[in-house]
Amino acid sequence: MANVSEPEYESPPGSDLSSELEGGNANTTVPLTTAPDSADGTRNETDAVERFAPVRADQEDHNEDSSVSDPGPPSEPRPSDVFTVSYPKCGSALLQFLVFGVLNRGEPSKDFEDFAARAPYLEWMGIKSVLEMRRPGAIKTHLPFEKNPHSPHAKYIYMARNPFDCCASYYTHMRTMPLSRPESASFDTFFDAFLEGKVIYGDYFDHVLSWYDHRSDTNVLFVTYEDVKSDPRTSVIRIADFIDPSIGRELRENPVLLSNVLKIASAHNMTTTCHQGIRSILADELALAIGKERITTAEFYKNVFAEALEVTEASDFMRTPICGRWKEFFKPEHVRRMYEWIDQKTAGSDVFSIWSSSDLPRLNPDNLQ
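== Sulfotransferase domain-containing protein ==
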């Protein structure tokens, strides 16, 4: 039994606010700090941006027992490992379900527990769940390239989404998550936080560029949310070819198999699976059965998410995947500031050209479409 220590990448990187937290572990992508009420009982809009940073998790390390039967440390992925990676709200679930369908030859998961055991979320479930994951499966993470456990033999599929839609979707997501749910925080407030990188996982372009710069690596496949949505069949075959060319051939030769893979990643199936999973996890203190043991991510989350059991069905955790969500929130001033930020962050890179044919706003303030 090899005694495996916890890796340094256990805390989500990149948030200015989270880095100021003393002690503990900033941890997970979900629990958020809540801005204090003002004296009259109302929320302070000026403090609202704090609600978009990770909450302190000063609880004990919940993966203390890392002694497992594994040939190497968690910083060295197995050659057979496949990682699905994205910045938050950039299609991580869509990619996760597509890869699950490809690896399992169009066979759906038995239930959410089976899905999560074959597609563990590294930052949420801990390294032990990854080391003991059921196979075939893929590891989900939101980590930037430099923080992700790397091996030249493992495979990494990165999905990018245009910053306009990402920002809009991220804002909607934050408004409906347990504990954060900043109903009084306007889109303007979140927009400021997004451009400043004061959101979980930090600056959007720092994250995207960390992977875009490695798009030519033989073990990295860089895809966009927009391409997958516009041509899912071609995208699935491309993903399959990258993972295992023999699976790609199967999908080309068997239209029924290809359709079954796409059904697994349908909006209906993703929503049904995720909502059922959220409820079952919350009801069971976020514990997942892996083999004969139970891996409990944190008793902390039981308290954090207790109220979520009452709002899960109405939650916006799993929205129908669409392109053009920015139209719901962006005004001319947002568009102007976004493009200024894009020019600043992408100087010297052609990364933004990958969305040259996407439905993005124009700089003309009188015509955003």
